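Backbone-to-sequence.
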């Protein structure tokens, strides 16, 4: 899933490519992806792109006072094309194509979603806050306003909730997903099952630094990369996420996994849980 660093880099890359270009049309290939009807997609035709930004994991293309907002969900992506086909994409349940943005110079964007579970969402709105997911976002962890006190309040309010679930909940902190929550907790040497309100002041400061550092470093590494390079960059620099059975780069222990019905987490027992492997979430106890 694209998370804050990848969406930030996408916004920079697309901003460079789209700035000042006019949108000819937006073709929808997966009708379930379009979540709004007013303004219509046709309202974007002829509009100049004023800029590309980010709200959490939402990509925001501003077009002549309107906003084309994308949430790429778990398996979505945006692919730049120097030349798009003359014919619009055909709707098909078997095709990964969700939408295509056609520009005045013949180039464009293909918005795709792999797999059979279709969750990608596209909105055309007058104000980004008209998108429910944006309106309910928590603070951005890379903004100056995201202070140690803000994180302290979030964790205190979360009570005994597991810390991994808290820091990846978009209404609590914007932009952190499954992958970077694993990386942040590994950097902080903290169990993903640790109760949020149980952190000491030292642990709180360590977690805060890990959030800012892991995300900030990922954003810096992605600066200047094209959209086609971002997935590889992300995967290459993961310490534990997606590396089950591999060696922890910090201590040399094996990276372990806890599986859930539709997702998983990765961690290092030596670095994060005092050497104790975590059982399945349904049977394991919180680690303190």
């Amino acid at each position: 899933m694209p998370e804050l660093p990848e969406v930030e880099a996408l916004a920079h890359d697309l901003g460079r490519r789209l700035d000042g270009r006019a949108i000819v049309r937006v073709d929808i290939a997966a009708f379930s992806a379009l979540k709004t009807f007013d303004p219509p997609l046709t309202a974007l035709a002829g509009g100049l792109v004023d800029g590309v930004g980010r709200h959490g994991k939402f990509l925001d293309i501003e077009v002549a006072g309107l906003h084309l907002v994308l949430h790429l969900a778990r398996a979505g992506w945006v692919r730049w094309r120097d030349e798009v086909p003359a014919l619009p994409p055909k709707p098909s349940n078997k095709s990964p194509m969700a939408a295509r943005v056609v520009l005045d110079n013949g180039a464009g964007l293909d918005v795709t979603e792999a797999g059979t579970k279709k969750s990608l969402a596209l909105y055309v709105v007058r104000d980004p806050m008209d998108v429910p997911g944006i309106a309910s976002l928590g603070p951005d962890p890379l903004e100056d306003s995201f202070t140690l006190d803000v994180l302290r309040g979030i964790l205190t309010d979360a009570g005994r909730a597991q810390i991994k679930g808290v820091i990846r909940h978009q209404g609590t902190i914007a932009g952190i997903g499954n992958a970077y929550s694993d990386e942040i907790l590994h950097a902080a040497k903290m169990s993903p099952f640790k109760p949020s309100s149980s952190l000491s002041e030292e642990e709180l400061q360590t977690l805060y630094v890990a959030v800012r550092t892991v995300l900030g470093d990922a954003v810096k590494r992605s600066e200047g990369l094209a959209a086609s390079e971002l997935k590889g960059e992300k995967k290459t620099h993961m310490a534990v996420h997606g590396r089950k059975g591999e060696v922890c780069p910090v201590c040399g222990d094996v990276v372990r996994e806890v599986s859930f019905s539709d997702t998983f987490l990765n961690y290092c027992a030596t670095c994060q849980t005092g050497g104790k492997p975590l059982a399945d979430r349904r049977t394991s106890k919180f680690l303190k």
